[in-house]
């Protein structure tokens, strides 16, 4: 197909604006072609500074736009179904924020429509599958080096919740991620769910029971549980501890999977600078590009290059003599002050 | 200026190829316009699959190329000076891998030329400044919440070194990063350097003394030391421990800065999902774009969207009844197997 | 009362022998007066090297022995009840290994007998209450600085189990510690228990279902759960994560309580050398005493004292001069080689 | 010799009082026979509640006392020499707090006197050698599994210093521990010492330069350095990082040695409950003994034993049925409230 994805982003709210910024500033091979919002002013604001992007008031217009060859759906869930059917009709790649649709029945009709089409066109926005630690735990499970996976303990904790966050949303908007994560980790469907309501925090809003303890079983009998605690105050945490036949693995507390097996606890050491500083290189080059596009230069300067050369010369000398060796620098041009 | 950076990458070796891949697949707002290598075949291999890029055998050709408006220099250091002068003459943004030039005298001539030009055009490739933990430590120092910075302990450890890695390279190619890091952290120039040679490892190649202990002082008397140990076998580590008047900070062992102050040890908790999963969102969308450009769809499918909806419905029901609630799914279309 | 406890240890099996060794070598203010075992040879072996201790074949004899003023019960549980009643009749301090008795009904008769006596004479062997981290978590709960305790997640993992370790023993011998810990932490009685049986490990012996997930609720509705996993292979772990209204606390993974609250994760820093090295001082002095009783001296020698003095003199000199200062030592007497 | 050590403690100041308490309450096989202090009132206060102990005003009296068969010296250092000679003359076991004597010359005369005696009678109070982590690092070095030890980085940090703590004391009272630790770890004598004075903290008292960076080399060329920082405010820390040919080991931050080798970071997992709860057992039994000697009983009560039995019965039932099972308790006798 074309060498660039020309994306119509439907919905310019929080997630939509975030994706627009991502597509324009960080994603290679794709461009924002159109932004749709019922509030046209919000769509227009969202395309400011994006050459070649148009603001539209309806998904139809965007999908009829010949310049658009992909769609990212970031509207409230109840609007997804209609847009999904129209986009499937155009047979273009779709990235749809979760939930696919608000209920299983309507979601099934989308599934059946895509199945009828005969090729996958829809990716759902369960981004955790793209998190390095999630991928690493999935890898440990599939490689099988620790034996069978037996138990999964999940913690999903938010500092607080937006106004009007109901008990239902606690499942539909929060635990939904763990439902997908458990399916992703085990490669199995979930067979049953149970919820325990215990002592509630004083910090929960009226009508919301927080925390809750969700008990889950998969087809093969893997036991999982989720402490969903959305007014935990201390910060944000999404973590999992997995019990295997031959070890225990923790993810979600930084530093990559933390493994206990064969009498050892710990993790894998970064093998080299590419792994350690790969992101820094990306950030460095992107920073240089962004500044250059503004006609500027930031970051380490030629003076920094010179000064470190002088240090190296002193260092090599010191290496030979063992003596403390002074580093002498020329006068610093004003340009670098 | 133009809305895209059209970059000539000079040098298609390891770092050059890495930057070409970065510019083409991960960096937004820039494109590879030309790749230069004395070995033209290597340049041609490097531009495979990059529409609009040309392979050239000399930096001159690239800099004379009207389609080029930026240059990334990734040749061996002894070739930098000549290319830098030519690029400065064209007054275009330059990203130059370290070292700026192989010695302080020649580096100074580059500095003076850019100063004469009167505007910064050169960024040097000290990528550590773009690492999140380095930036965080720099932030802690400038914010001053822990009082004055007094001592910096650096460890720079590699599993092993390429053949022919000499004692001089140990300073010029490895410790050079700490020289810049110490200057970056303190905002001061380095005043003196001393090197201690102790018991060497059996794993060091002939003629290389490893490890070495480098002692550094800054203008204001901050004491720094670097254990440079390039055949450490265990893995790769670049870490710093900073002693302040009112606390101690460690970076370089994952999990962000680790601070000890006021009787507490620990770090900052991720405040929200944007911080925790921001990268996952980038990876997710890039994966969707890359697959779409290949005419494919990967990642969570519509079936995943449907199955999690069914879990949510069971969860909300279970929340009300407290009973174990079965999750019932429709037959799975072959498309999703 | 007397200035020394003269203890009769009933049962010279694994726990009994361990307590005998403890009383004789590490506990101050108590001595082993008698060891009772139906296997008299085992009792006699147990008192070897303990001056003034006698080996006996029945608890009666021990309790009739005027030299005995305290009793430690370490027999199998089904023998406890009879010994407890006899010891209560003598009104002496009793340390009884858990379980108090094998079932609630008989345990209640012991409770009623002691209540009738009108003063406490029995301490039960729930040793976790004396673990520094357990005490610290209890302290955090009672101090209330993190608000109300809401949820307790326990992991109880053993590498493997002795032959004949049944499903019942998994509750009676293992989870019993968590039952007491939950009561200790919350200061409440337990209101209900539920057990989930999921996917079992291949490493569990015939007839034992491992792991199991035990769900517990306290009087006030605190939710607790225990992953009891006794063939976990990787090692031994007894850990708890407590969710409060204003923070999360982990214990059981060394380093003291790990707290997350107010956007920070971490722990308390050892305030001084007494806390850091208090145990080392105890071990040091005990080692000196034990060696002296054997007519020997171990540990740091006078030579060590001399050599470090020489280092200090060089150090103070170096402090003044800033120069590298040699440490010169006299010839080392053979005694110290 | 006798079956109990009857110890004369010389000096009833801070360390002396601490050792008296230790010998009386925590050390088995030794008793305080005499306490000596030039301030007799302080000696008398120190023996309060210690049956059979006498307070004396001179070391001579204590050493002439036939009831005394061992001596612990805890006076200021300048008084050690005279007492050491008298105690050597009596040929009894001596535990002498560091320093052995205030200077190398006098320490050497003590060494020579003991060597003349022909048997070791003196142990010097370098208690770090008895710390579990120090012993573990020494073990790793001697076992040789990580190859040769090459570099040792020490941090010695105190929150603050007592009034009148001079630059000399910073070496003689603080760094002296690292001098011994480096000798203990390497099994070598120290060959040279150098001190770097950098940027001082505002928190140091007049006339004291803090922090200091002490550079040390051993006979075989092992490089060591110590950051001695005695007004570090944040807390107390004594830590070491050792670089080996095949790995890196950290001690001093709890949790036992932290090892990096072969691409892994981490530590050893507690193998069983004896290792995890051994100290808790000691504390438990000592607590029972101490309470019993006061005529009391503390700790888990018979009621705790009963209540946990009831939980176990409910648990075993729940295990069979899978249902939530209530725990029913009898009325609680007042004795347990």
From TrEMBL, chains A, B, C, D:
It is an enzyme of class 1 (oxidoreductase). Pfam families: GFO_IDH_MocA, GFO_IDH_MocA_C3. GO terms for biological process: inositol catabolic process. Homotetramer. SUPFAM superfamilies: Glyceraldehyde-3-phosphate dehydrogenase-like, C-terminal domain, NAD(P)-binding Rossmann-fold domains. The gene is iolG. Belongs to the Gfo/Idh/MocA family. It comes from the Bacteria. Its EC number is 1.1.1.18. This is Inositol 2-dehydrogenase. Residues 5-126 form the Gfo/Idh/MocA-like oxidoreductase N-terminal domain. Keywords: NAD, Oxidoreductase. InterPro entries: Gfo-Idh-MocA_inositol_DH, Gfo/Idh/MocA-like_OxRdtase_N, GFO_IDH_MocA-like_dom, MI/DCI_dehydrogenase, NAD(P)-bd_dom_sf. The keyword Translocase does not apply. Residues 134-248 form the GFO/IDH/MocA-like oxidoreductase domain. Involved in the oxidation of myo-inositol (MI) to 2-keto-myo-inositol (2KMI or 2-inosose). It comes from Arthrobacter wenxiniae. One of its GO terms (molecular function) is inositol 2-dehydrogenase (NAD+) activity. The keyword NAD applies.
């Amino acid at each position: 197909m074309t060498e660039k994805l020309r994306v119509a982003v439907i919905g310019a709210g929080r997630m939509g604006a975030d994706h627009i910024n991502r597509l324009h500033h960080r994603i290679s091979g794709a461009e924002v072609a159109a932004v749709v919002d019922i509030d046209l002013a919000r769509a227009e604001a969202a395309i400011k500074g994006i050459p070649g992007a148009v603001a539209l008031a309806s998904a139809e217009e965007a999908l009829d736009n010949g310049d658009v060859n992909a769609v990212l759906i970031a509207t409230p869930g109840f609007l997804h179904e209609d847009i999904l059917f129209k986009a499937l009709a155009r047979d273009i790649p779709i990235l749809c924020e979760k939930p696919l649709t608000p209920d299983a029945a309507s979601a099934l009709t989308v599934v059946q429509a895509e199945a009828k089409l005969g090729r996958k066109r829809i990716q759902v926005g369960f981004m955790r599958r793209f998190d390095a630690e999630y991928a690493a735990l999935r890898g440990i499970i599939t490689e099988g080096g620790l034996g069978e996976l037996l138990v999964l303990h999940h913690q999903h904790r938010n500092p607080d919740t937006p106004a009007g966050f109901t008990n239902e949303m606690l499942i539909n908007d929060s635990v939904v991620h763990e439902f997908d994560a458990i399916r992703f980790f085990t490669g199995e469907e979930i067979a049953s769910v149970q919820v325990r309501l215990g002592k509630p925090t004083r910090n929960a809003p009226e009508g919301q029971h927080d925390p809750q303890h969700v008990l889950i079983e998969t087809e093969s009998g893997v036991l999982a549980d989720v402490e969903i605690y959305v007014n935990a105050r201390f910060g944000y945490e999404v973590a999992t501890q997995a019990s295997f036949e031959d070890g225990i693995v923790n993810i979600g507390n930084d530093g990559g999977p933390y493994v206990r097996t064969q009498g050892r606890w710990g993790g894998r050491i970064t093998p080299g600078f590419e792994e350690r500083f790969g992101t820094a290189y990306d950030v460095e080059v992107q920073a240089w590009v962004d500044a250059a596009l503004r006609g500027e230069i930031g970051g380490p300067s030629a003076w920094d290059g010179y000064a470190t050369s002088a240090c190296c010369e002193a260092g090599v000398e010191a290496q030979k003599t063992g003596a403390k060796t002074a580093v002498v620098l020329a006068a610093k041009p004003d340009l670098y002050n």
